[in-house]
Amino acid sequence: MLNHEIQVLKMAAICTPWRLAHHLKLWSGNGANVQFVTESADWAIRWLGEYIKVEVNALEPGRMAVTSRPEKIVDRVVHFGSPHLWRMWGNAMSRSNRFIVSYFHGRVEDGDSYRRQIDAFLRSQSQLEKIITGASIMEKRLIDWGISPNKVVQIPIGVDTKIFCPPINDQRELSRRKLGIPDGIILVGSFQKDGNGWGDGSEPKLIKGPDLFVAALAQLKSKGLPVMALLTGPSRGYIKTALTSAGIPFRHLYVANHSQLVSCYHALDLYIIASREEGGPMALMESMASGVPVISSRVGMSIDLIKTGVNGFLADIGDTVAIANHVLNLVESKNTRQIIRNARHTALGVDWSIVARAHLQKVYRANSETNFSI
């Protein structure tokens, strides 16, 4: 808590000169009229902003930019990629801006820290023009908390279906060979950050369900399935230790950029989302687009996108037995190819081109009474 307050004071000190300059008519801002504020880390929030930017600018060139340093922004649409970023920067920035925030996940029952963050967000809602969320479950939650329904906009998190495609020819075999995956292995993906902080991740972020993922694989191993995990991304220390303790082999790698995940998906037999809470996740749509069957707990956008047995499989949160049974059914199913085709069709409906257009029409243009210059 103290660290957050120090960060807020730091942001206020950075922004104040620019607010003052704008008040004195010495500064009117520059750059695109929609500014997406992200963290400096190259992870999901930045990817989200970059994908929306590319597609928005394809529709209206120069309309949008992505930044991790928003202190100079005035007279613009400012879209914060998370409530955390809004809490850090929002109060410090010029009130000449129109403020928007994406709020993808969060529950009061997840602990005192989350409750305090939610309470602080609710107190600040009067300063926000729109709140974007990706899933119907979160839209309902925000409204139940007391957010005006007129402020809440449900727009799904997207996927680049031109890049994330099912493997063709020998792409699957090449990807598995490059990763050193033995023949006969059932390779299960988990590509999300599930450790607290940006260190080794030895302290688990339990809402991401790393313990449940390992428990599901352990059950599959006990039933004689030759399972192996493929992990990507930072802060995976806890899950690596837990997999080792359970005797489950794994590969862990980092990718230089988001598009390099494609070959990782091509190597997979299936993807498991065992989370207790999610906003998407992005891996859900990427798996469906890439021809990888998904077994997910009932979190985030999985509830909106997956129909069990049609284009994937759903299990109750924490039900690792159901997750394992779905995997067993998938392995034995003669309908897997149709499930993959159906999932690809679902993913096409949330391509970033569609998602970006929704941002432009429902949020960035909405309620605008100002013609900002580019």
Secondary-structure element series: HEHEEHEHEHEHEHEHEHEHEHEHHH
Q: Ends: how far apart?
A: 38 Å
What share of residues are in beta strands? 5-15%
Total domain units: 2
The neighbouring-strand order within the major sheet is 2-1-3-4-5-6
Contiguous low-pLDDT stretches (5 residues minimum) are 369-374
Quick one: CATH class of the largest domain?
Alpha Beta
The rough form would be described as globular
Number of separate strands? 12
CATH topology of the largest domain: Rossmann fold
CATH superfamily of the largest domain: Glycogen Phosphorylase B
Radius of gyration: 21 Å
Helix content: 40-55%
User: If you average the pLDDT, what whole number results?
Assistant: 92
Major sheet, described briefly?
Answer: 6 strands, parallel
Q: Which structural category do the helix and sheet elements fall into?
A: alpha/beta
The number of helical segments is 14
So, CATH architecture of the largest domain?
3-Layer(aba) Sandwich
What does this structure look like?
- This protein is α/β, with parallel strands linked by helices.
- The chain folds into two domains: 2-158 and 353-364, Rossmann fold (3-Layer(aba) Sandwich); 171-350, Glycogen Phosphorylase B (Rossmann fold).
- 42% of the residues lie in helices and 14% in strands.
- The chain is built from 14 helices and twelve strands.
- The chain has a six-stranded parallel sheet.
- α7 links the parallel β7 and β8.
- α6 (171-179) crosses α9 (261-267) and α7 packs across α12.
- The relative contact order is 0.13.
- Mean pLDDT is 92; it is low at 369-374.
